[in-house]
Amino acid sequence: MGKYIIEGGYSLSGEIKVQGSKNAVLPLLAATVLNEGKTYFHNCPKILDVYNMLNILTAIGCTIKWDKDVLIIDSSNITTHIIPEKYVQMMRSSIILLGSVLGRLKTVKISFPGGCSIGTRPIDLHLKALKQMNVDIKDRHGFIECSTNEIIGNKVSLDYPSVGATENIMLTAVLSEGITTINNAAKEPEIVELQEFLCKMGAKIEGAGTDTIIIKGVNKLNSVEYRIMPDRIVAGTYMCAVAAAGGEVLLKDVCKEHLNSTITKINEMGCFIKEFEDSILIKAPERLKSLDLIRTQPYPGFPTDMQAQLMSCLVTADGTSIIAETIFESRYKHVAELVRMGADIIIDGRIAVLKGVNRLNGAEVFAEDLRGGAALVLAGLGAEGKTIVNNASHILRGYENLEKDLSLLGANIKYSSD
Length: 418
Ligand code: EPU
Known about the structure:
Layout: E1 3-7, E2 12-17, H1 22-31, E3 38-42, H2 48-59, E4 63-67, E5 70-74, H3 85-90, H4 97-105, E6 107-111, H5 124-131, E7 136-140, E8 143-147, E9 155-157, H6 163-173, E10 179-183, H7 189-200, E11 204-206, E12 212-216, E13 224-227, H8 232-245, E14 247-252, H9 260-268, E15 272-275, E16 279-283, E17 293-295, H10 307-314, E18 320-324, H11 333-340, E19 344-348, E20 351-355, E21 364-366, H12 370-382, E22 386-390, H13 393-396, H14 402-408, E23 412-416
Helix pairs in contact: 1-2, 1-7, 4-6, 5-6, 6-7, 8-10, 8-12, 10-12, 11-12
Uridine-diphosphate-2(N-acetylglucosaminyl) butyric acid is lined by residues 23, 26, 93, 119, 121-126, 160, 162-165, 186, 303-305, 327-328, 370-371, 398.
């Protein structure tokens, strides 16, 4: 499972480039299935979730090649509509293949992804929408089987702006008959990226980034070359690393417009931030200030994917902070580990109350999920003495170069595969 070993107390300085976005590339990889040709990706992050998705694409007939840093996917031949169960169980976000394989083959079979360490994560909104688009859905023995003679566009209203449901509906509708309108769509930058990518392949979509997305079905898509956008959560994680460890760092290749709510909170904690065209300079203060209330919300609100990392900063801030996690019901697995490091945190349901302590103490802790694991690494950077973060494979799912980047900035961190 691997571990990170961190000697705390080294402040960070220098500059690093931010990797391509995990949550943008995964639906784009799924979308290549809709295209009976080749796709060329630049800036694709080399992370476990991407490798897992590439394994699934290979298993259903795609050919994958890396030409140096360019990822080439040939999806001319899709040989099966069955998504291998072992991969779905390894990576919940493989549910995104529901829409693309259905769009391409008019049939798909995938196992129920089930819950994960951050919540139960149902897919009722995905399935309800597909039913409205003339798709027959059978749910038996833990598998979902979808089939149709023809996908027919419809007006779909989501009860909640789910990112995954919005992406699956878009992917299903691209090669459909007629027009699909998604009301109360998710507005995340990853949805805009999916629209841009699909339109570059020849799809007709507008409205991504607003709450209404309109997709006009087309017959065929074409080959495409595409550069994946920067990862806003990795950028935010590195900003929190500077806040937790101290120092001054320039983050290059960031899209600052995607980071507004994160920048606001990091700024309110007392960090100095200067925004340039595609980079951000962050400088930590002597001591961070507490924040009254942070509520995680769908975009453009403060992202749930940054909640744990922000918490790792606030546990040593001056004063009491309150966090309300509104998106996922059990995304506080990192709290017990932070408490083991000396943090003073009380959880009541979805509310966390954090009383800032002067300093954390290094300890042996366990990552339970991706972002919570990254948060423990950040806590270790600012802590006194040695911290060991076990179960590092959770972190490798989404961070390409965590220990290399942090080492380059002066942190004392090593990765061990033991
Ligand atoms: N929900 C339902 N029914 C559905 C779909 C969602 O009740 O049919 C609920 C979920 O249970 C959850 C909430 O709606 O409580 C939000 O879920 P959403 O569908 O928006 O999230 P997702 O598509 O499953 C993506 C990201 C997550 C990120 C969330 C929210 C990917 C691969 N995953 O998940 O990223 O937290 O949006 O922004 O894009 C991560 O990167 O660490 C991560 C978990």
